[in-house]
Amino acid sequence: MLKGFGNFLVKELKELVRDPKILLGMIILPLIMFPVLGGIMNYSIQSAQEQAQKATLLVLNNDGGNWSEIFINNLTSFVRVFVFNNTTPEQAVTQNLLAEYNATQFIEIPPGFSENVTKRMQGDFSLKASVKFYGVFSGSGMFESIGSSIIDDLVGQFNRVMAPDVVYAEKSAIIKGEIVEGVDPSMLSGLMLSQAIAMPITIMILLSYSMQIAATSVAMEKEEKTLETLLTLPMDRFAILIGKLSGSILVAGIGALAYMVGFNYWMGSFMARIPAGITLDLTSLGLVPSLFGYLLLGISLFVTLLSALALAVIISAFAEDVRSAQSIIGYIYPLIFIPSLALMYLDVNSLPLALRIVIYAIPYSHPIIASKAVIMGDYWTAVLGIVYVAAFTLLVMYAASRLFATEKILTAKLKFKGLRRRGKTPVEELQ
Amino acid sequence: MILDIVVEAVDLTKDFGKIRALNRLNIKVRSREIFGLIGPNGAGKTTALRVISTLLLPTSGSVKVFGLDAVRDAPEVRKIVAYLPEEAGTYRNLSGWEYLQFMARFNSKDKDEVNEMVKEAAEITGLGERLKDKTKTYSKGMKRRLLVARALMNKPKLAILDEPTSGLDVLHAYHVREIIKRYVQEHGVTVLLSSHNMLEVEHLCDRVALLNKGKIVAEGKPQELKEKFESANLEEVFARVVGLA
Predict the structure, then answer these.
(1) Domain total for chain B?
(2) Which residues, numbered 141 to 170 in chain B, qualify as contacts with chain A under a Cβ-Cβ cut-off of 8 Å?
(3) Which of A83, A142, A215, B81 might form a disulfide with A312, Cβ 3.0–4.6 angstroms?
(4) At the fourth CATH level, which superfamily is domain A48-183?
């Protein structure tokens, strides 16, 4: 039965395990990447919870009755509270009270609150006392809705102590400095989730896919022994580089388009399950990028793609064949995956300084950061990201053009000292 | 009669790290001749051809091709030289015809000239209708004929052919040798080729240089070398020169 299987399997394992590229790419990298990702996720959940617990809540007390005092006292046992009397929500926004008190949410206790609570307590169950919750929506990530749920907890806590369902919270969002009545920030976060997930995933797939194409394309020239001929032709060597990049961009672009269409359809199937009656038009809320925003996003994506491809071309020039090129490109993936996955859940500005610097330093983070920024009308963040990635791209392109201009494109090989036991040296092959 | 010097290498040295692949190599290739670099594997033949064809930079020494410096004037040299690497391949998903068109367009922008070159190359290959097929379906011999045709189709002033008949069967090798001879005679192409098949070189080349460990150990017409070293063929000459016989 299966004669020779054992012998063959041993040979296969030796071949695979002794290949340092496989060892690094398949075993060591995941061992590093996933703990790093896990650490970021843990941190983000923990910091979101801590922030919510330490949250500052502004209370606009426009009732002035006993029950409003009791309600405020109840709040102060859980969160830091600043009370303002006779201040309307509009005044709170225009007077910039939220920024002044470093808060992202406030509650208005409207006139008649105490009266309604009293009547309800006396048995008039047709009445309910409401508080109005206003939360700032910044499109920062999946944990943005925690503030809104904390309010639900606080109101629930009050009702448990006093009477069932005596108080309920009406929620509204503050979007780009404007109050949008009746829009629950947490529901908005849910609706924006598709964008928050789609963009990083699309960028992740686009970058990794196009890098594979570029690397394969260069390595294929080496593997099929066509590069040597190409380099002796009367053509500009920079044209080879630009040709490789352009071809990869076109193919990857078509791939990304197909992916985005498929992904939107997939996400659409989830969106279709949002309960009927919830109608939020993101366009009217100003939560879709403007034409200028789209332009910035396009430029950001293009320069990032270009830098990734140029890097892939350089790296793959050190590979002997397609398989090696793809393995080597695998080392770049953590730089794409970690920011993509982390920024799905996190607002980069909520990270500690060191981590923030790391995320900003990775060029592949910037289209994701830009995609969030342009939705919120923060064009400067997108522009600065473009400038940074463009500078990085120029540097990489310069290195790539230098590589193509010299014999290194032909002779360069990545060496794994000590790990590589056998095989020809580059010199033996060249002679 | 004054003979034009097409290739002149002076004290050509090429190091790869600590290994010296070419050691003060001196050769002169004359116009309209077939010059053969012969020697065993690892002698430095391919390195020499790569330096002359501008692929590699010399560590020291100089190479001139039609008076142009192979380092300083590399783009100009590439316009007059066609190089066929030993293990050259083709683009798998292009047909033979498309491959020839792709290559011809580097030599001319004129559509008629390109068509002329491709027709010429198609004739050299002898592949007929198979040129319409993707090159991934070709045998090694068919690919090699396509590549030789590519190297000669624009009638370069200098054709550098690294082991042009490498891996070919007797019939294919004969076909390729005949093409090379015809191009030299009919179109005045100068050919610099390498081979470790010394018998083949003896019949094909006007002059040969025997290369061993990066150095020229003997040079001349095959007949002269045989007489000088009292040998029946170039293999024996080589064995005597390197002290094996």
Answers:
(1) 1
(2) 147, 150
(3) A215
(4) abc type-2 transporter like domain (3.40.1710.10)
